């Protein structure tokens, strides 16, 4: 009598069972997805209309509405646009001055040079410079070096 022994591999058996379970799980998930998709009948969910936003409020109009009187804008002095940072004065009124205009980096200007579109450097003194519309015009702006402490 011949006895045959059955050879089985327990690890292989679990791998086959696990992969089979995974495949059937994917089949079930796909069937549920397509069942829900087809049962909706192609109806789409209506989209709510976009809410309109109110235009931004005008602060001046709100102030007038609440009884406020209009206030004039503060006047900026011409001297506040210029800053004197250094002076090299010559005895005859000439020389050079280091000026910063409108917060820009400072630049050196000689006496008589155009500082901006309206003013020229009219005169240079040891601690003070004057700006005017022209070399013959009266001084429009006088700038002084800050006092050292």
What does this 3D model show about the protein?
This protein is α+β, with helices and mostly antiparallel strands and 149 residues long. It has a domain at 78-144. It is built from two helices and six strands; from the N terminus they run ααββββββ. A three-stranded antiparallel beta sheet has the order 1-2-3, with no helix packed on it. It is elongated, with a radius of gyration of 44 Å. The N and C termini lie far apart (121 Å). The relative contact order is 0.09. The mean pLDDT is 81.
Q: Give the overall average pLDDT.
A: 81
Main β-sheet, in a few words? 3 strands, antiparallel
Structural class category:
alpha+beta
Helical proportion, percent range: 10-25%
Shape: elongated
The proportion of strand residues reads 15-25%
* N to C succession of SSEs: HHEEEEEE
Distance between the termini: 121 Å
Number of strands: 6
Which features does this protein show?
6 strands, elongated, 149 residues, 25% helix, alpha+beta, three-stranded antiparallel beta sheet
Short recap of the structure:
The protein is built from 2 helices and 6 strands, in the order ααββββββ.
Topology record:
Layout: H1 10-39, H2 59-65, E1 82-89, E2 95-101, E3 107-110, E4 120-124, E5 128-132, E6 139-144
């Amino acid at each position: 009598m011949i006895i045959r022994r059955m050879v089985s591999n327990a690890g292989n058996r679990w791998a086959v069972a696990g992969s089979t379970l995974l495949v059937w799980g994917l089949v079930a998930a796909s069937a549920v997805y397509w069942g829900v998709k087809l049962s909706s009948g192609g109806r789409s969910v209506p989209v709510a209309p976009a809410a309109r936003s109110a235009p931004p409020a005008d602060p001046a109009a709100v102030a007038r509405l609440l009884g406020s009187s209009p206030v004039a804008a503060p006047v900026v002095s011409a001297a506040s646009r210029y800053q004197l940072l250094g002076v090299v004065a010559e005895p005859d009124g000439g020389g050079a001055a280091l000026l910063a205009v409108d917060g820009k980096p400072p630049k050196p200007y000689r006496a008589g040079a155009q500082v901006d579109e309206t003013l020229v450097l009219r005169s240079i003194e040891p601690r003070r410079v004057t700006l005017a519309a022209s070399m013959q015009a009266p001084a429009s702006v006088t700038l002084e070096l800050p006092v050292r402490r």
